[in-house]
Amino acid sequence: MREVEPLSRRFVIKRIKFINNSFYHIFNRGVDKRIIYGDNRDRLYFLYELNNLNTSRTAQNLKRKLERGSTSFKKEEYVEIVAFALMPNHYHIILKQIADKGISKYMHKLGTGYTMYFNKKNKRSGSLFEGRFKAKAIPNDEYLVHLSRYIHLNPVSLKNPDWKDKGINDKNKLKKYLEKYRWSSYYNYVKSGDTKGTDDIHTKYILEYFKNDKNKYEKFMLNYIKADKDKINDILLDERG
Fold first, then answer.
1. Which residue in 49, 208, 218, 224 has its CB near the most CB atoms, within 10 A?
2. Tell me, what DSSP letter sits at residue 69?
3. Which CATH number belongs to the domain containing residue 29 in this structure?
4. Backbone phi and psi for residue 84, each to the nearest 5 degrees, phi listed first
5. Which structural domain, as residue segments, surrounds residue 210?
């Protein structure tokens, strides 16, 4: 993985310059920390958009190609989705930009599309998210790996809010809980075949750190201990931004 110059420790970066073939931690939450995923329908819609808005192709583009008799529909993606987790009032995503201004275009479509859906469903108006999405460049492979673990462990907060400070005690219980949690990419990293929600996850960048052994990644996840908090302090500070 190519190294990028570390940016500010603060998470709120108003106009970050996104570089092609570099990795970024993308985060946002509901305005006033409000719930942004009220039920499974909301989560499924967000995942649908996460997959299907990652393209410069529009419905009109495709219609014109069909009218011309074309059978080639290259997706022309903005980004590669590396990992994600949806929480009741926020989300985390790791993206690799692969097209010029890809992250900005993709996140604009994702945020606008989901807000329109949410507002229509709930008969409300106005902003849903706390301003523009937040982003931080991922400086190296080690940070990328520990960030992925933090993101995939984030849902544990719904059952055990103190996991970051106290570590994981019951590994078997944690394993079952994470595998059943449908709203993250964790399943893509530890299982083959059934992707439970989205199949457009590029696991290779993180799994190559574990020699493409999913069992090793799973052990890395489940072996989080209190001392590991030092490795994610940067991430926690950034979130408070």
1. 224
2. T
3. 3.30.70.1290
4. -160, 160
5. 23-240
